[in-house]
Specification:
Strand content: 5-15%
Strand order of the largest sheet: 3-2-1-4-5
Structural class: mainly alpha
Number of strands: 7
Radius of gyration: 24 Å
Bound molecules: flavin-adenine dinucleotide, iron/sulfur cluster
CATH topology of the largest domain: Serine Threonine Protein Phosphatase 5, Tetratricopeptide repeat
Number of domains: 3
Distance between the termini: 61 Å
Largest sheet: 5 strands, parallel
Number of helices: 20
Length: about 500
């Protein structure tokens, strides 16, 4: 048998039929390689929804390539070849004996290094092609970063708007401003979110059911449930999910972007992150659909701009930050936080109603929206003082959209301030009163967000003051924390001592 010309490696988050990996692909001479690797699901203790998302989407992609008549060497879980990524790859190279390897830039630093290492060890040429999925190539972000002292998403986003022409007219932002945050971010008020069209569900087909069964078999002890698995797992479903969001939720996206409500996991969010991160859906398609909705008068500009900012701004920005600062970024711990992650993060069993709801839906669906991640689960870990590396491992394990290039800067940087200010200009800290304002959680909770000490003290409120006390010298140097530091100065010595005592008791109870 003549040996293969190219073995094209397709990773679990590279399921893009238009990928540069396939440029010049000739099924007579080339083959695709994909592998389900048990160790990838275990190196962080991945939830069942996350594992199922990857397996189901990979299997659908494999079938789509085979339907084109392309040879795909696919190793399913439990097959021969070993349980780690490098063992599987070495095994494939022994069997298939390609002349060269082709890969699109891997999304994770350590995976990119592992593949380079295999190529070196086997003496095979490795051609790494750019990832066209993103609108800002890594090289361009490097140039952007080199030209400024400090990285800020807002300036990056304006450059991206100008460069792409999205929501622009004659070189100016449409509507005369870049940012409509002042019109956005309302809470629901007493009546709650009201009746909405529920998001489009995708009942598992035979391929997905096979993936779900394999997750139950090979990852039986992992957290989370598959009972409600309904994510889009191929390009056609991802497109339908996008259309559903544009038609039914985009118009109110901005307004209720930060609002939370008990037993309402989706609200006005798009649920598109996993489809985009696995590359089932091109962000340009999403951005164009949102902009068109505004041009057609189907959604107001503040909602559309707010949504576009998340994808053209934040999503591209965090990828740039990740590649700019890896591998050292993973080790950062600017606040010297060292507590272990409380065990209830893996079960959702806690008296704190806000955490119970956010963790419950996380384990049930592999999903929580941004403010639940930032201002409930992330905020508690920050105030409690959890080691950011442990927080990162949890976030990477639990969400269906979790891939390291986007998860790590959001977790270690934006949410835990572990990078000391690269992602956020100040720590995102607040007391339980923020959660009370943005949700109905506190109404169903045994704690009182207004109290920082005493039997009904809200742990968020106690730990908020304790956080300010523990980090007072550092926070004093940050002008954006001036108001919070001024409020801290109003506490008497007795108040400070009471807060510290209560925080110690809470830590002792949870540890
Ligand atoms: P929507 O609210 O509908 O937003 C639309 C899209 O904008 C999302 O699909 C996403 O692609 C993009 N987006 C929004 N916010 C961000 C952001 N901060 N960074 C990058 N893209 C953004 N997002 C992930 O995709 N994977 C992760 O592993 C991840 N981990 C996070 C961890 C923490 C601690 C925090 C605070 C945020 C994290 N995010 C992550 C960002 C954000 O929470 C999710 O993208 C969003 O909740 C996904 O739900 P959605 O598709 O309904 O998003
Ligand atoms: Fe969460 Fe505190 Fe409100 Fe309870 S009172 S829901 S713990 S913020």
């Amino acid at each position: 048998m003549p040996s293969l010309r190219h073995l094209v490696l397709v990773l679990g988050d590279q399921l893009d039929a238009q990928s540069a990996a396939f440029d010049g692909f000739d099924p007579a001479h080339d083959a695709v390689w994909m592998a389900e690797v048990k160790h990838e699901g275990a190196k962080v203790w991945s939830t069942k929804p996350r594992l199922a998302m990857f397996l189901a989407a990979m299997r659908h992609f494999r079938d789509a390539l085979r339907a084109r008549g392309w040879p795909v060497d696919y190793r399913a879980l439990g097959g021969a070849g070993g349980e780690t990524f490098t063992a599987q790859l070495h095994d494939a190279l022994r069997r298939l004996r390609p002349q060269a390897l082709v890969l699109v830039e891997a999304g994770e630093w350590s995976v990119a290094r592992a593949i380079e290492e295999v190529a070196r060890a086997t003496g095979l040429p490795l051609e790494v092609r750019p990832d066209r999925h993103f609108l800002c190539p890594r090289e361009e972000f490097r140039r952007h970063a080199a030209s400024r002292k400090q990285l800020r998403m807002e300036f990056f986003y304006r450059e991206m708007r100008a460069r792409t022409g999205i929501l622009m007219a004659h070189g100016e932002p449409v509507g005369g401003q870049w940012n409509f945050d002042a019109d956005n971010r309302e809470s629901f008020g007493r009546d709650g979110p009201g009746l909405r069209v529920p998001p489009r569900r995708f009942a598992p087909d035979a391929v997905t059911r096979g993936a779900l069964a394999d997750v139950e078999r090979h990852f039986a002890g992992h957290p989370g449930s598959l009972a409600d698995f309904d994510w889009p797992v191929d390009a056609a479903q991802a497109r339908e999910a996008l259309e559903d969001f544009i038609a039914h939720r985009l118009a109110d996206f901005g307004r209720y972007q930060d609002a939370m409500w008990t037993h309402e996991p989706w609200l006005y969010h798009s649920r598109l992150s996993a489809a985009m991160n696995l590359k089932l859906l091109d962000p340009r398609t999403v951005l164009a659909a949102a902009e068109q909705a505004w041009r057609d008068g189907a959604a107001p500009l503040p909602a559309v701009e707010g949504f576009i900012r998340q994808i053209l701004g934040w999503r591209e920005f965090v990828r740039g930050v990740y590649w700019h600062h890896m591998p050292g970024y993973l080790e950062r711990n600017a606040l010297g936080a060292a507590q272990p992650l409380p065990a209830f993060y893996w079960t959702g069993e806690t008296e704190m109603a806000c955490l119970r709801d956010a963790l419950g839906q996380t384990l049930r669906h592999g999903y929580a929206h941004h403010i639940q991640r930032l201002m409930v689960t992330g905020l508690f870990a920050l105030l409690y003082g959890v080691d950011p590396r442990r927080v990162h491992e949890w976030y990477l394990a639990v969400y269906v959209d979790a891939v390291e290039w986007v998860e790590l800067p959001n977790t270690l940087g934006m949410s835990q301030y572990g990078d000391g200010g690269v992602m956020a200009s100040k720590p995102y800290v607040a007391s339980g009163k923020y959660i009370q304002r943005m949700s109905n959680y506190c109404a169903g909770c045994r704690f009182d967000p207004a109290q920082g000490t005493g039997p009904r003290a809200c742990p968020f409120t106690t730990l908020y003051w304790d956080f300010l006390l523990r980090h007072e010298p550092l926070l004093r140097r940050n002008p954006r924390m001036a108001m919070q530091v001024r409020n801290l100065a109003r506490l008497s010595a007795a108040d400070r001592a009471a807060i510290r005592r209560q925080a110690e008791q809470q830590r002792a109870r949870l540890s």
